[in-house]
Amino acid sequence: MNFNFNKIKKSDYPYIIAEIGVNHSCSLKIAKMMIVQAKKGGAQAVKFQTYKAEKIVKRSSKAYWDTSKEKTKSQFELFSKYDKFGLNEYKKLANFCKKTKIDFLSTPFDLDAVDKLKNLVPVFKISSSDITNYPLLNKISKTRKPVIISTGASNLNEIKGAIKILKKGTNKIIIMHCILNYPTSEKNANLNMILSLKNKFPNHLIGYSDHTLPNNDMLNLTTAYLLGAKVIEKHFTFNKKLKGNDHYHSMDMKDLISFSKKLKKIRTILGKKREKNFIKSEIKSRKFARRSIVIARDIKKNTIIKERDLITLRPNIGISANSWNKVIGKRANKNLKASTTPSWRDFK
C-alpha cells in the first residue's frame, strides 16, 4: 500500500487522493476503469463513499450544493441514487486496487459503514460534514487506524473537539483544509488557512481537499502543495461533461496527469537542499565571477598599503575581495607590480 504515515510525513511529494466518490454511478465496470485512470494519472489512492441514504439524511432535508450544476434539490433523493454498493462491491474494488497498486479508500457516513470498511482501508477518511458527528468519530477511533479528516465549514473549537476523540485511537491524524461549497469559488478557497492549521496543530500533518472547478493551471492544488499540504484530495471523473453529482467540479485523468507533471517540475525547481549554501554547479562561478585583490599601481618594498594601491578584479584566484580591510595597512614584503595578483606572503 502507498499509505505510510511516516513516509508521507517525510516525503517532499504529496499523497494524492483521486476521489471517485460515487461518480461511478454504481457500476463496478466504471469504478474499475476510473481506478486505472487514477493510477495512470499519478494518484496514490482512490476514494469512494460508503453510505445508505436513510442513514445520512431525513427525507425532507434540502440541498446545500449549487442546484444550477446539480439540479436535485433533495439530499435524500440524490444520495438514494448512488447508495447501491455493499460490502461485496467494496471488497471487489479493494482487491482490484491492490492489483492495480493504488490504495483503496472510502469515506464511511454511518456506523455500519465503518464495520464494512475497517478491514479494507489503510486509513479512514472523514467527511467535513461529520466533523461534529461524535458517534461516528468514536467508532472510527476504536479501529485505531490512521485518520484523514476534512474541516470544511468548521471552526477551530470543532476541529479540536474532533481531534480529541480521534486521538483516543491514534496520533496519526491528517487535518485537511477544505471549503464546504460545491463548487468552491476561487475567492473562497482561502488556502492561507493551511498555514493557520499548521500553526494551530503542529503535531499533525496538514492537507487540502479541493472543491474548486478544475482549470488548466491547477493553481489551487500546486499552491496548496507549496503551502505545505502533505495530502491533496480532489474529486475525480472519467467525463467532466456529465451532468449532476460531483462530475462538474472533478478533475479527469488528463487534469491529474497535468497536475502530476506540474508537481514534478515544482519539486525540481524547489530542489533538495533546504539550507542556503552554494551548490556544485556554482563552484566555477565562485572562481570566475567573483573578485580578488589586484595591485593598482607599482608599489615599492616596505610601502604601507593604502586603498589607492589596490583594486578588486575578477577572477577570484588570489586574496578574496572580502579581505580588503585586512590588506589595507599592511607593509609590502617586496616590490609589487601593477596588475599583478598578490598573495598573503607579499605582505607583512
Properties at a glance:
single chain, 348 residues, alpha/beta, TIM Barrel, Type Iii Antifreeze Protein Isoform Hplc 12, eight-stranded parallel β-sheet, two-stranded antiparallel ribbon, 12 helices, 10 strands, 32% helix, 15% strand, elongated
Q: Return Rg in Å.
A: 30 Å
CATH C-level of the largest domain = Alpha Beta
* Low-confidence spans: none
Instruction: Please work out how many helical segments DSSP would assign.
Output: 12
Largest sheet: 8 strands, parallel
SSE class: alpha/beta
Spatial strand sequence of the major β-sheet: 3-2-1-8-7-6-5-4
Description:
The chain is α/β, with parallel strands linked by helices. It has two domains: 266 residues, TIM Barrel (Alpha-Beta Barrel), CATH 3.20.20.70; 67 residues, Type Iii Antifreeze Protein Isoform Hplc 12 (Alpha-Beta Complex). Helix content is 32%, strand content 15%. Strand 4, helix 6 and strand 5 form a beta-alpha-beta unit. Helix 2 runs parallel beside helix 4 and helix 2 packs parallel to helix 10. The mean pLDDT is 96.
What topology emerges from the helices and strands here?
Elements: H1 5-10, E1 15-21, H2 28-41, E2 45-50, H3 75-81, H4 87-100, E3 103-108, H5 111-117, E4 124-126, H6 134-141, E5 147-150, H7 156-166, E6 173-178, H8 193-200, E7 205-210, H9 219-226, E8 231-235, H10 253-270, H11 283-288, E9 292-295, E10 310-313, H12 324-327
Quick structural gist:
The chain is α/β, with parallel strands linked by helices and 348 residues long. It has twelve helices and ten strands. The strands form two sheets. It has an eight-stranded parallel beta sheet.
